[in-house]
């Protein structure tokens, strides 16, 4: 999860997030090179008193500064489109979960199991156990198997919400009357935190999301226990 004064992204917990971080670094390097070149040209133009007729009026220079930005845009656009299609790709999910946004909590329905459904509320500060994070911990976590494709159907009951888990590279709007879907694969077991990312009222900051990825055996034990409690 994020920590104070962090400059970069959270550690990736899914293949898509790894791709997004690589693309960010790729685009940032291009921006850095362009900024350096432009700064050098500005300083050179301001400090030098020399002029050159072939620079002030040159068709070759105009061709270069027209083609070069187009090539740079292509270098940025192609990997961006690739990741965009990867994020939309949902093929043979092993588990489907329906996340419903409310004011101001989330509820989850495991559609592959008839009896598993629960509400997920933020744990108040006074009830936190040692090691739990204020404003991020919930009373019921969304448990998923690691290294397995999971589909999340996102909707809302009242106003606009947004189901977002940065470490997974997932952010999907929850719209009343509409069912959006997204998918992720947890690369490793762990606990990953998110928050509602759409302003949804007075307690918008108090409806966190916690995804707990566990090995398949532990997920089967958890689902069996939830079915027995139901």
From TrEMBL:
<dbReference type="InterPro" id="IPR034210">
    <property type="entry name" value="CcO_II_C"/>
</dbReference>
<dbReference type="Pfam" id="PF00116">
    <property type="entry name" value="COX2"/>
</dbReference>
<dbReference type="InterPro" id="IPR014222">
    <property type="entry name" value="Cyt_c_oxidase_su2"/>
</dbReference>
<dbReference type="GO" id="GO:0042773">
    <property type="term" value="P:ATP synthesis coupled electron transport"/>
</dbReference>
<dbReference type="InterPro" id="IPR002429">
    <property type="entry name" value="CcO_II-like_C"/>
</dbReference>
<keyword id="KW-0812">Transmembrane</keyword>
<keyword id="KW-0479">Metal-binding</keyword>
<dbReference type="InterPro" id="IPR001505">
    <property type="entry name" value="Copper_CuA"/>
</dbReference>
<keyword id="KW-1278">Translocase</keyword>
<keyword id="KW-0679">Respiratory chain</keyword>
<keyword id="KW-0186">Copper</keyword>
<comment type="similarity">
    <text>Belongs to the cytochrome c oxidase subunit 2 family.</text>
</comment>
<comment type="function">
    <text>Component of the cytochrome c oxidase, the last enzyme in the mitochondrial electron transport chain which drives oxidative phosphorylation. The respiratory chain contains 3 multisubunit complexes succinate dehydrogenase (complex II, CII), ubiquinol-cytochrome c oxidoreductase (cytochrome b-c1 complex, complex III, CIII) and cytochrome c oxidase (complex IV, CIV), that cooperate to transfer electrons derived from NADH and succinate to molecular oxygen, creating an electrochemical gradient over the inner membrane that drives transmembrane transport and the ATP synthase.</text>
</comment>
<feature type="domain" description="Cytochrome oxidase subunit II transmembrane region profile">
    <location>
        <begin position="1"/>
        <end position="91"/>
    </location>
</feature>
<keyword id="KW-0496">Mitochondrion</keyword>
<dbReference type="GO" id="GO:0016491">
    <property type="term" value="F:oxidoreductase activity"/>
</dbReference>
<keyword id="KW-1133">Transmembrane helix</keyword>
<dbReference type="GO" id="GO:0004129">
    <property type="term" value="F:cytochrome-c oxidase activity"/>
</dbReference>
<dbReference type="InterPro" id="IPR008972">
    <property type="entry name" value="Cupredoxin"/>
</dbReference>
<keyword id="KW-0249">Electron transport</keyword>
<dbReference type="GO" id="GO:0005507">
    <property type="term" value="F:copper ion binding"/>
</dbReference>
<protein>
    <recommendedName>
        <fullName>Cytochrome c oxidase subunit 2</fullName>
    </recommendedName>
</protein>
<keyword id="KW-0460">Magnesium</keyword>
<dbReference type="InterPro" id="IPR011759">
    <property type="entry name" value="Cyt_c_oxidase_su2_TM_dom"/>
</dbReference>
<keyword id="KW-0999">Mitochondrion inner membrane</keyword>
<keyword id="KW-0813">Transport</keyword>
<dbReference type="InterPro" id="IPR036257">
    <property type="entry name" value="Cyt_c_oxidase_su2_TM_sf"/>
</dbReference>
<dbReference type="InterPro" id="IPR045187">
    <property type="entry name" value="CcO_II"/>
</dbReference>
<feature type="transmembrane region" description="Helical">
    <location>
        <begin position="27"/>
        <end position="51"/>
    </location>
</feature>
<dbReference type="GO" id="GO:0005743">
    <property type="term" value="C:mitochondrial inner membrane"/>
</dbReference>
<feature type="domain" description="Cytochrome oxidase subunit II copper A binding">
    <location>
        <begin position="92"/>
        <end position="225"/>
    </location>
</feature>
<feature type="transmembrane region" description="Helical">
    <location>
        <begin position="63"/>
        <end position="85"/>
    </location>
</feature>
<dbReference type="Pfam" id="PF02790">
    <property type="entry name" value="COX2_TM"/>
</dbReference>
<keyword id="KW-0472">Membrane</keyword>
